[in-house]
Every structure is written in structure tokens, then in C-alpha cells.
Write a structure and sequence with these properties.
Beta-Lactamase, Arc Repressor Mutant, subunit A, five-stranded antiparallel β-sheet, about 15% strand, rod-shaped
Length: about 400
């Protein structure tokens, strides 16, 4: 059964389109008609296209013996669909998948036989590798789509783990979900033997590890499940930085990358990639940077899950007076620096590049407008969330002050 399956797979690489391309181009080069048959002896490619679809009886014995055969004019007349010449087996992985025949006097064309046979086998081997590569890519893409759509209420995790194991992929290994968006069009493959998109090759080289999975899911969009480095996520960030530079240098393209958390198993990998997608979206919208990790935008991720109207009600309730002041960017920068520096006057002033007394004056003005009688961290945290909301809703402050 395994031998039959291997034979069918090998024969499948010799398609009529490929056979006709080889026969047509080779006939023009050697000056004699070349024909190619399948394992049934049917002509599937020929420099003389009128012979395509006819039966070539001599091929059956050549396929059976895997040995070449010559046919004189008299011998050819005794065989159906055969002209004088030489017929040789096409071997792929030890299997005869068809024959190649050269029409002419055996004395004249035999010297071309081995050359044509070898060239045909080389081209067929390349075609077989391409088919195998593309099949592997489709299987990986299907597996990744299954992970991204995984629902434990609909699918058993063990079933997906078994499916992955059949593809030599261990989903129990730790990985980091990464969302990649390539901006602009990338260049086409540089050589005929480079079958995968250059962007995909570059991603696999950037996050190189035997456990890393990288596939294309849409035009210029890629999913990567990268094996974490010894440094964890910071190591992945470093690899992502090198990846950005590689895209700029070799493909003249910018790329945006969102990075999730370290996870394992179908559900964990799905969650990690969802975090990566949020990182990519929020990083582009708020951080305006090429690489963003989910830990940098956790608050924004949470707030973005709240409806727009609810966010607007919140900011109105918490910061309406400050929004109407007309100097919201300064207020926003001050509150964010104050909270993210741990309510440190020195740290916040350094972050804002202002004098400590200037910061105190700003805080006092905010507190006066808010009607606060004392400086409480929880009040500032509530205001901090309003600042984060307006980062999400970029026109929020302007629309309120209009």
C-alpha cells in the first residue's frame, strides 16, 4: 500500500502541462520531436502536438522494465502509435512515472537519449519538490487556521494536537504569537527555485527555530508562532527588530509587528495570537511604532473592549472640565507622566522635560479645575484612564471642545 501511494504521488508530479512544456522546449533545442507519455502509455506532451492524446504502445514495456528501447522503422510499424527512435523511462524516486521518446533514426537520436532523459528527470524532480513544498505550506496554513478558530466547546484539544502531530508539529511546545503586517508590495522571488514568498522566508529566518511556525493568511499578513528565546519576550522583540531591518534592507518594505505572550496548546496559542493582533492594532494607533508587545498596551486593550459611547460617557464624567479647557494635550501628558512615574515629582518632571515647580503648578491647576481638595492617587488613576481613552478616540477631546 505504501509503495502504491508513493508511486501515485510520483506520477502525479508529471502533469500534462509540465510534460508539454518539457517536450515543446526540448524539441526546439535538439531538433528532433520529443514526446512524453504517462504510466499508461498515453502521450501527454509532444513537440508534434497532433500526437498528444494518442497511445504509444512501446512505452508500456519501457515502464515495466525501466530500461530504454530503440525501434527501427520495421519495429515501429508493428507497434501502435510508435515511430522510429528511442524510448527511455522517466524515473522519480525509483519509480517509472512515464517515458520520454525521441523520433528519428535510432543511430542519430540515441546519443541524445540520456541527455533528454536526465534533463526531464531534473525538471520533474524540481516540480515534485515544488508540489511537496506547496502541499506542506497548505497543511501548515490549515493547521494555523484551526488554531486561530479553536473553540474548546466545539473541538477537542486532543484532536487538534493529534492533527498537528501528524504534521510533525508539537503544539504542546511553548511559543509566542506574533501578528505581522507588511506595508506596501514586496518584491517577487529572486530566482525560479525560490518558491515561497520572500517575506515568508525572511520571517522564518528572523525567528529561526525548529518549533517556529510562520504562514501567510492573507495578502501581506502573516501569522508567526515563534519559539521563545532564553530571554523570553525581550528576546523575541530583539528578533523582531532585526526582522524590521531585514525587510527594509532586502525588500524595501516597512513591516509592523504585534507580539503576544508565551503560551502552549491550542487555546493558549489562539489567545496569544489574539493579543498579538491587538498589539499590532493598538501599536499602530497609539504608539506609532513598528513593534509593540501586548504588555505595553494592556490598558488600551481593556479600554478598547468597552463600547465607544460608554468610553465617551466616562471621559465626560471624569474629565469634562479639563477637556473644555482647550489645553488637553498638556493635561493628558502631565497626568500620564505623573501616574506612570509612580506619582514621583522627580520622575514625572524628568519624563516631561520640565522643572519640578512647573509640574507642581500643573498638578495644582488640574486639582483646582477638578474641584479636588487633596491629591489622591485613586482620583488621578481615574483621570489617567480618561487620558488613555482619548488616546484611543483621537478626536475625542477636539469634538468635545468644538
Amino acid at each position: 500500500m505504501a509503495g502504491e501511494s508513493s508511486t501515485r504521488a510520483a506520477a502525479g508530479a508529471l502533469t500534462p502541462a509540465l510534460a508539454q512544456q518539457i517536450a515543446g522546449e526540448t524539441s526546439a533545442i535538439v531538433g528532433f520531436n520529443i514526446l512524453i507519455t504517462d504510466v499508461r502509455g498515453m502521450v501527454i506532451g509532444s513537440g508534434d502536438t497532433s500526437r498528444v492524446g494518442s497511445f504509444h504502445e512501446a512505452s508500456l514495456d519501457v515502464i515495466r522494465t525501466k530500461e530504454p528501447a530503440t525501434h527501427s522503422a520495421a519495429e515501429a510499424r508493428a507497434l501502435h502509435g510508435v515511430k522510429p527512435g528511442v524510448t527511455l523511462p522517466i524515473l522519480l524516486n525509483g519509480h517509472a512515472v512515464g517515458t520520454v521518446g525521441i523520433t528519428g533514426s535510432p543511430v542519430q537520436v540515441t546519443r541524445f537519449g540520456l541527455m533528454v532523459e536526465r534533463q526531464t528527470e531534473i525538471l520533474l524532480h524540481q516540480a515534485s519538490l515544488l508540489r511537496s513544498t506547496l502541499q506542506r505550506e497548505r497543511e501548515l496554513e490549515d493547521l494555523v487556521r484551526e488554531i486561530l478558530a479553536f473553540d474548546p466547546l466545539m473541538t477537542e484539544a486532543e484532536a487538534l494536537l493529534d492533527q498537528a502531530n501528524e504534521q510533525a508539529v508539537d503544539l504542546a511546545a511553548s511559543r509566542v504569537g506574533i501578528a505581522v503586517q507588511v506595508l506596501g508590495r514586496t518584491t517577487s522571488p529572486a530566482t525560479t527555485t525560490e518558491w515561497l514568498p520572500r517575506a515568508l522566508v525572511m520571517l522564518r529566518e528572523s525567528f529561526a527555530h525548529r518549533h517556529t511556525i510562520a504562514v501567510s493568511i492573507a495578502a501581506n499578513r502573516y501569522v508567526v508562532f515563534a519559539h521563545p528565546t532564553a530571554e523570553g519576550v525581550p528576546g523575541i522583540v530583539a528578533q523582531a527588530g532585526q526582522c524590521v531591518e531585514q525587510f527594509r534592507t532586502h525588500l524595501a518594505s516597512d513591516v509592523e509587528i504585534g507580539i503576544g505572550t508565551v503560551a502552549a496548546g491550542p487555546a493558549g496559542l489562539r489567545n496569544s495570537y489574539e493579543d498579538a493582533v491587538d498589539s499590532l492594532r493598538l501599536g499602530r494607533r497609539i504608539k506609532q511604532r513598528s513593534i509593540t508587545t501586548i504588555n505595553e498596551v494592556r490598558i488600551e486593550q481593556l479600554l478598547s473592549g468597552v463600547g465607544l459611547r460608554a468610553r465617551q460617557r466616562y471621559t465626560t464624567a471624569v474629565a469634562d472640565r479639563l477637556l473644555r479647557l482647550g489645553d488637553w494635550p498638556t493635561v493628558q501628558a502631565t497626568v500620564v507622566a505623573w501616574c506612570e512615574s509612580g506619582f514621583s515629582l522627580v520622575g514625572a518632571a524628568r519624563r516631561l522635560h520640565i522643572h519640578r515647580n512647573t509640574l507642581i503648578h500643573r498638578l495644582e491647576k488640574i486639582e483646582q479645575l477638578q474641584g479636588w481638595t487633596e491629591r489622591k492617587s485613586e482620583a488621578y488613576l481615574a483621570l489617567y484612564l480618561a487620558c488613555k481613552v482619548t488616546e484611543l478616540d483621537l478626536d475625542g477631546g477636539q469634538s468635545r471642545s468644538a
